[in-house]
Amino acid sequence: MPQEYEIEVTEDDRKFSAAEGANLLEALQEQGYELPSLCGGLGLCGKCRVKVLAGKQPPTESDRELFSEEELERGMRLSCRVEVEDDLVLAIPSLAQGKSEEATAKSDLDEQIVDVEPDSGIKRVVLDLENPGRGDQRSDANRITDEFEGSYSFPLDIMEDLPEKLRENDYSVTVTIDDSSGSLLSVEGGSSQYESYGMAFDIGTTTVAGYGLDLETGRTLNVDSRENPQGKFGADVVSRIKYVRENEDGLDRMQSEIIRAINELVQGFVDSRNIERKDIYRATFVGNNIMLHLLTGVDPTHLDQAPYIPAFTDPQTFDAEELGVKINSGGKIVLLPSLAGYVGADVMAGVLQTGMHKSDELNLLVDIGTNGEMVLGNRDKMYAASTAAGPAFEGANIEQGMTARAGAISHVSIDDEGQLELEVIGDKRPIGLCGSGIVDTVGELIKAGLIGEKGGIVSEKSALPRPTINPLGNRLIDMEGEKAFWLHVDNNPVFVTQQDVREVQLAKGAIKAGIEILLEEFGATAEEIDRVYLAGAFGNYLRKENIMRIGVLPRVDLDKIVSVGNAAGQGGKLALINRGKMDEVNKIARDVEYVELSFRSDFTEKFMSAMSFPEAGE
Amino acid sequence: MPQEYEIEVTEDDRKFSAAEGANLLEALQEQGYELPSLCGGLGLCGKCRVKVLAGKQPPTESDRELFSEEELERGMRLSCRVEVEDDLVLAIPSLAQGKSEEATAKSDLDEQIVDVEPDSGIKRVVLDLENPGRGDQRSDANRITDEFEGSYSFPLDIMEDLPEKLRENDYSVTVTIDDSSGSLLSVEGGSSQYESYGMAFDIGTTTVAGYGLDLETGRTLNVDSRENPQGKFGADVVSRIKYVRENEDGLDRMQSEIIRAINELVQGFVDSRNIERKDIYRATFVGNNIMLHLLTGVDPTHLDQAPYIPAFTDPQTFDAEELGVKINSGGKIVLLPSLAGYVGADVMAGVLQTGMHKSDELNLLVDIGTNGEMVLGNRDKMYAASTAAGPAFEGANIEQGMTARAGAISHVSIDDEGQLELEVIGDKRPIGLCGSGIVDTVGELIKAGLIGEKGGIVSEKSALPRPTINPLGNRLIDMEGEKAFWLHVDNNPVFVTQQDVREVQLAKGAIKAGIEILLEEFGATAEEIDRVYLAGAFGNYLRKENIMRIGVLPRVDLDKIVSVGNAAGQGGKLALINRGKMDEVNKIARDVEYVELSFRSDFTEKFMSAMSFPEAGE
After folding, report:
1. What share of chain B is helix, strand, coil (3-state, %, to 5)?
2. What's the distance, CA B204 to chain centroid?
3. Taking residues B318-322, what's their average pLDDT?
4. Would A453 be classed as within a structural domain?
5. Which residues of A touch B146 (CB under 8 A)?
6. Are residues A482 and A400 in the same domain?
């Protein structure tokens, strides 16, 4: 029986015991502490941070990446990466309501400055105005607008309050103007120059992320997320469209669920920074186009049947109030542009974030989820396509697939001796495979010669190199007539089946064929690709060599592959804080040429051939 | 006892008797028929028209001015000008709900085409769109916007209905676009190209007029008016401001009253043309600036004390929905610009209508009501001022003053023999004087030598020319120590007192002094004025010679004086149907220089001296 250690949480003075080697995040969650974790315990998001006040807990590699030297010395650690090996006394910043802990959180987030000069067009200006008099009979409104070069219109509610507002503050006010709309957003008493905020939302089918930014500095002040509550109506876009079609109030319900989640994220930002909703003046939205339809209450049902027509692809601006998003009553909701029904604002925002639309080099952006979306091109021309890749890379449709959470095998490697090594999220007993685990398994089995070019798992141990001493042979099993390869055996064995390999082939074949068609359209070969951007979590945790080995991409040098994380969210932030970036993404959506793969007669042929594993032996 | 005639009304088959010589409008009103009359029975507005189907009723001069030959032959008459002298069978178009009578009304109003090419920026376009297909995957929104050169945004409610609207109409729709806002205003099934309307409102302190126009043709389709219901809170702007100051909900009540009246006028237009509220896409508003503040619910209380600061003077655009004006839900309310607190959008619209801002000649626009507003200038420079002229010219503050309605002496002339001739509205027994009556009386008395240069009514009959035979002498009376001149004697005598003359002097002195200061500012003399525009009812019914004789204006040739009627309302119509005109009036308000007379030390001196009657003998 393993050693037990004592964990003490200072916020509520509770103590509990945890086994040696236990994952600290999970131990805390088991005790009812609601620590957020966006990345599923991958040590990426930094949300599960704790402060180790006493006890031995050396920084992990993830800690070193996320925290400054000073923070490490203060004891900041990612609880998701901590294996308990001592009695610990902890502070948990995310639980704290006090100012001091907020300040701590702030210092971390202040670092997340988006790499562009802030120019949202929303400005706060402190005005100490001349009092009116015999020589100065200008109207209240002109007394303000004369301070600016452009002309600004007054919303009715601001005009109605204006005479009193000016006089009760003796003509000293802080004014918020929006250069994009040429409108005033607020007139407030006193001087409070720096209180202008915005939010960027990334509405994923599964997860809704909200970023709170300071429009003045461009700093990200808050990152938070929620499960997309529409999940209860269907896990993927197809089932949600079906729900809308089959339920009279389906669209309304979808919309109110997502708006509610957004308002929770707004409230979270407001609470975290002790600001007010009225101080949030703009919100940008990225997401796939179906999510944007559901957000705005626009029927998406024409998107699941040919010719797949969305109601809109252009950027949209609506009044926040009209949509029920509770920011400043004059605030605007800005949807970034989509390209087509299945190449959404998330992809356009990703292009923006990579900058490939301004590059002389040939870039490929691949965003893989249930659909795989890809954009190929350079400053002169760009092509984009979407494939129904199937959800294998998200761990779905896989016999023992699961999302990337504790217990999922996230990485697999097989050495030359045939020894298998597993990496399991949370260092727990493995209970299944997530997307990266399945990709690794297939990749390593190809390398080991256990999967053939057409995707078949070998049936003969003799096919192995040095078969007599290779332990892999024992892992090949026959499961009720289906070949399989086991990764872990205990009460709950984990294995990969022939059918799982087929799912991977379908997914990667669709993506690869799509890329090949884009290359043809562009008139280039794979060798000419200068850079491949992998967007989304996919790119963050997959091993490039196995991506290449299973052939998701045409053959390119591994060092051309770059992970860009949540490029969509980053693009949304860029468009939020910089008007030029908003113009840029609009131009991208106008310039990229959409290629509808499902109408291409050559797609099927390419798809069939792309399903094979050319790196495998015959 | 006078002869009685029988009047029959075909609309309800009722018959009643009326005395010989009775005014037909009044006789009808006494019987409960609600005939509208905007001009108070002056034969100007044409609202009280009836159709004489049987009976002898030759056309009057007013009839000849208002009706075409054909209409006269059909029996159209202004009931306010009819003296009953036969049995009559009548049709009353304003009572009729039927189509045929509407058509009659239409043919009259069709003539009222505003003299500018319609270019409101609001266009209806019938689109027979390509169905989507494999080669055409454009979004629903782009399928529409691609038909236009510019870019147009979709309001949320239109976007939400768009997918269904397109499909249920097989992609044949009529779209309304607004080039001013770059927004779509409607997407409707089928083809209905010509259903786009607008309204121009002239919000007077006393009367609210609403003009319904066809935006496509620029035609005025409907004219209607209401008493300004704010009247119950105070007859003039000063008492309304006082009401707002002294009642917590005063501003709200003022606003809801005027909005209700506007919505009644909207409904009247809708009913008269069998259109729908949604087909009215824009409304312009002119009025004095206090009326515009009360309309928008903006506190006007800083306008009645120096330095007289309004909340706004610039043009304003608000959502009709937000203001509660029930036109198209995406329609806009446009307030024309004011120049200052007391030189309102009505005056700016008047300048627009006269075109004086584009003239090489030196023009003077004078609009006289409770305040007198005046604008002097040409294309190079313009100056404007407002004086608290006092309400004498509206018949108020005059011992026996009254508004211009039946029984008011509207014109007075005295011939060389000293014979007096009165003109009474409705040809009734006189019961008082309206503004034009008092001006005429004072003017004629000056001419007859009965009022001296300083305004005193002569006390000596000997002052009269040919005193022994001049019957005017008998009209000079002493009323409890105050000199007076009687115009009519019966049970209810009508006379003009010395104090009345003083009121006229105050009013005309203020206006004349204001004009003199504007002339100084401009650097011109009165002789250099090329044209004087008299705006409002004032100009319509005053005799130029008496305006000049009492000295409301500096001395100019009579033929330089032009009455321009309701120039404010006309200007509002221009700005409604033509964007260039809206730009023009905005430029006018920016370019005209405002002169605050109450701050001018030289005003009092000029005012004192302008009160005299230089045309009178010493």
Report:
1. 40, 25, 35
2. 7
3. 95
4. yes
5. none
6. yes
> How many H helices and E strands in chain B?
18, 26
A203 and A94 both lie in a single domain: no
Give the minimum alpha-carbon distance from A594 to chain B in angstroms, rounded to a whole number: 10
Please name the residues between 365 and 424 in chain A that touch chain B, using a CB distance below 8 Å: none
Cα separation, B201 vs B268, in Å, equals 13
Residues A525 and A459 in one domain: no
**A605: distance to nearest CA of chain B, Å?**
20
How far is the C-alpha of B158 from the C-alpha of B165, rounded, in Å?
9
Q: State the DSSP string of B429-458.
A: ---EE-HHHHHHHHHHHHHTT-B-TTSPBP
Range list of β-strands (E), A107-233: 122-128, 172-178, 183-189, 197-203, 207-214, 220-227
Question: What CATH number is given to the structural domain containing A14?
Answer: 3.10.20.30
Is the CB of A314 less than 8 angstroms away from the CB of B145?
Answer: yes
CA distance B222 to A257: 48
Q: What residues of chain A score a pLDDT lower than 70?
A: 1-2, 36-42, 44-45, 94-115, 390, 460-470, 537-540, 617-618
Query: With contact defined as beta carbons under 8 Å apart, do A113 and A78 qualify?
Result: no
B319 and B467 in a single domain? The answer is no
User: What does the pLDDT look like over A330-360, one tens digit per residue?
Assistant: 999 999 999 999 999 999 999 999 999 999 9
Q: How far apart are CA A351 and CA A572, in angstroms?
A: 11
Q: Give the alpha-carbon dihedral of A155, A156, A160, A165, to 10 degrees.
A: -10
Q: What pLDDT sits at residue A462?
A: 57
**CATH number where B168 lies:** 3.10.20.880
Q: Strand B531-535 and strand B363-368: pairing?
A: parallel
- Residue A603 sits in a domain whose CATH number is 3.30.420.40
Residues of A in contact with B299 (CB under 8 A): 160, 163-164
Structural domain includes residue B343:
no
Cβ(A610)–Cβ(A516) below 8 Å: yes
For the entire predicted model, the pTM comes to 0.79
Residue type at A468?
T
Ramachandran region, residue A548 (left: φ > 0; alpha: ψ -120 to 50; beta: rest): alpha
CA distance linking residue A347 with residue A352, whole number of Å: 9
Longest distance between any two alpha carbons in chain A, whole Å: 105
| CATH number where A213 lies | 3.30.420.480
Pick from B55, B45, B106, B29: nearest CA to B78: B45
Q: Which of B164, B189, B214 is the last residue of a domain?
A: B189
The tally of domains found in chain A comes to 5
Give the Cα separation of B103 and B110 in Å (integer): 10
Of the three residues B80, B96, B112, the one that is the final residue of a domain is B96
Amino acid in position B224: D
**A-contacting residues in B 306-325 (Cβ below 8 Å):** 306-314, 316-319, 322-323
Structural domain harbouring A207: 198-335
Is B106's pLDDT higher than 50?
A: no
B134 at interface of A, judged by CB pairs closer than 8 A: yes
Q: Does A297 touch chain B (CB under 8 A)?
A: yes
If contacts are CB pairs under 8 Å, which of residues 191-250 in chain A contact chain B?
Answer: none
Q: What is the pLDDT of residue A476?
A: 87
- Compare CB distances from A317 to B133, B153, B307 and report the shortest one's residue: B153
Higher pLDDT, A428 or B612: B612
> Does B374 lie in the same domain as B322?
no
Site of tokens 């971390």: A108
Q: Residue A616: inside a domain, yes or no?
A: no
How many of the other CB atoms lie within 10 Å of CB of B414?
21
Q: Are residues B414 and B307 in the same domain?
A: no
Give the residue with greater pLDDT, B136 vs B105.
B136
Residue of chain B nearest A136, judged by CA positions? B307
Q: Are residues B75 and B184 in the same domain?
A: no
In a domain, A340, yes or no: no
Verify that A546 and A453 share a domain, yes or no: no
